[in-house]
Predict the structure of (S)-2-hydroxy-acid oxidase.
Amino acid sequence: MSVSRTMVGEPVNLNEFQELARQALPKMYYDFYAGGAEDEYTLEENMEAFRRIMIRPRILVDVSRIDLSTNVLGYNISAPILIAPTALHKLAHPEGEVVTARAAAACKTIMALSFTSSCTLEEVASSCNAVRFFQIYVYKRRDLSALLVQRAERNGYKALVLTADSPRVGRKEADIKNKMTLPKLKNTERFLSLETSSDNGSNLAVVAKETKDASFCWKDIEWLSTITNMPILIKGLLTREDAIKAVKVGVAGIVVSNHGGRQLDYAPATITVLEEVVQAVGGRIPVFFDGGVRRGTDVFKALALGAQAVLIGRPVIYGLAARGEYGVRQVIQMLKDELELTMALSGCPSVKDITRRHVRTERERLHSML
């Protein structure tokens, strides 16, 4: 979806925050955040696929009061909108993830902190009193992964988000052209060197190849569960087959995700496979969702197709780059306001009233034409 470059005045939607971020950031950093893998088909399709889902509103329902609140892993939050783990917030704002965490706390929602954060997990934990999750990859050095998990647990993080779709890093051509290299990662700088160069201009893929454990597989989830008491969410699932395996190995939840279109290009848009995963899980564990959420109507559609909550990534970065903590709060509030209006106009007084019958997918539309 193209973003207007002639925006003037106060932003009224998330796409306009993207344009503010483009104006505020150096091109290298904007491209790093906004870009996707290779042809960026999946990046664009994540958003476009929402446009092919129609809402089926119900009328003459008492919507004089709308309740957005919900529960995630036993924690009450103000709306089914969480902050997804995204890297290197200090490239967008001098105070980095500390500011993002404060905004999450002010909005009464949950932030999942990326292990590739610009601030240490301890700095973020001490910045405000809020529920936080911690995202992790598994390294060839399992002792380093275990240390990070233990630090997160010791500092009050409530769940572990295992990103499982990145045994290697997707090829992002803008990063190669811009010669984007990883700065020091605060959580691992004492233990892991990133002093690596690459002939193609960007060191991201080389660093990942030298550090990430590409052999990590389903049987290793048991190892991860032995080193923490935190519930484990597995992020990066796109198929029925893997959803069944996730339930079998005992994870606490699933995040349907294609890494924001940054890993495997031509992977399906997440909203097109959400229902497949939900049906495979059969209510045994909660299913969460990320990828392409830019409107409250997108949140509504994901909830109708079975997600318990959505996670937003890039819009948070855009708000942070444009206006710091206030910008992040604005982004979350915009989504909440749009979701509230969508619920009212669709006849849903509360989140639990949003059902599968409130949406019509492209497949259903095409089937009806046969």
In short: The two ends are 30 Å apart (CA to CA). The first strand starts at residue 54 and ends at 55.
